[in-house]
């Protein structure tokens, strides 16, 4: 194969894993919750075999799927963006990244306050919309930074764009990233800028930026780049891998913008991987527990997919998957949910086979490495021979 397009529909989980309850998630299933919306209409992904995946027959099955299909269980001990994407790219994380359900200790906050010269508000786990509603006005008055976390390994800094300019907020995130190493090596530092006022409400902007912990070893992206092939990052992929292993990158302002970028690269004569993250599923709809919004976002991708496939040739391969769950109907928390991920594999040469349920997101990395003809050290087993 010459080109591989890997789409991560961020948080589009395919049902609870056997150990989900130990992660605080009971009976979760992101796709099932989306199917409860009367707005869901995804005939193209269903025709590819999405409903034929184990446990997803509520989406509708077809007699002759046009793609290979299956679902994968996570081997790593996590349910977050960093761990999920790293595993997709070949790295298993046996130990969870540090989390702070009671807020961050002073040994983290004090050097951060000294380095930024600003005070701290919040310091607790909270949803992003809730935290700016509760602390936004005080932040505007004092200039203190809103620092918060979630069930994930994240250090999030929210600031009003007119109080803390974007570049300054990014500078503060760089400071935090340098401080948060070793035992406090959280997966991501996230800039969460917002606008608005207390009267009309505060609203987050698209100027979010992630600062990931650097992967502990080479990933699929590094291997592809080292072999002289193209490793293109679309959306927050560049940030998730701390810039390692990419030859070109572009950020998205929305899912629609990400699809525009993918369409652009479909017209380019590259050789390698185009790795695309579509974060709105998670950020805009999953965490906000917006079932209908999530369903409509899936519709948008589904309606776009045939136009994209028309641009592809004999030596192109498409994979559609996720990195974790974020069940929009699960109200016990507003956090990610520990779930299987769906997998669809499409292309003119792809055999429409049922891959069943397998363990290890890293099977994706192993398969992509094999179809691109590069050698990669990963525990994942390639399924290339089964689909081609």
Would you spell out the secondary-structure blueprint of this structure?
Elements: E1 3-9, H1 30-35, H2 43-48, E2 68-73, H3 81-88, H4 106-116, E3 120-125, H5 128-142, E4 145-149, E5 154-160, H6 166-179, E6 188-197, E7 201-204, E8 209-212, H7 220-226, E9 230-234, H8 237-240, E10 248-250, H9 255-266, E11 272-278, H10 280-286, H11 291-309, E12 316-321, E13 341-346, E14 354-359, H12 362-372, H13 384-387
Helix pairs in contact: 4-6, 9-11, 10-11
Task: Fill in the keyword field for this structure.
Alpha-Beta Plaits, eight-stranded mixed β-sheet, 14 strands, six-stranded mixed β-sheet, 388 residues, globular
Give a short synopsis of this structure.
With 388 residues, this protein is an alpha/beta fold. Helix content is 32%, strand content 21%. It contains 13 helices and 14 strands.
Number of strands: 14
Give the number of helices: 13
How much beta, percentage-wise?
15-25%
CATH class of the largest domain: Alpha Beta
Strand order of the main beta sheet, please? 10-9-11-1-12-13-2-14
Overall mean pLDDT stands at 97
The SSE order reads EHHEHHEHEEHEEEHEHEHEHHEEEHH
Describe this entry's structure for a reader.
The protein folds into two domains: 3-93 and 215-387, Alkaline Phosphatase, subunit A; 106-211, Phosphopentomutase (Alpha-Beta Plaits), CATH 3.30.70. The chain has helices spanning 30-35, 43-48, 81-88, 106-116, 128-142, 166-179, 220-226, 237-240, 255-266, 280-286, 291-309, 362-372, 384-387, and strands spanning 3-9, 68-73, 120-125, 145-149, 154-160, 188-197, 201-204, 209-212, 230-234, 248-250, 272-278, 316-321, 341-346, 354-359. The chain is an alpha/beta fold and 388 residues long. An eight-stranded mixed β-sheet has the order 10-9-11-1-12-13-2-14, with helices on both faces. Strands 3, 4, 5, 6, 7 and 8 form a six-stranded mixed β-sheet that branches. β5 (154-160), α6 (166-179) and β6 form a beta-alpha-beta unit. The protein is built from 13 helices and 14 strands. α9 runs parallel beside α11 (291-309) and α10 packs antiparallel against α11 (291-309). The radius of gyration is 20 Å and the shape is globular. The chain starts with a strand and ends with a helix. The model has no long low-confidence stretch (mean pLDDT 97).
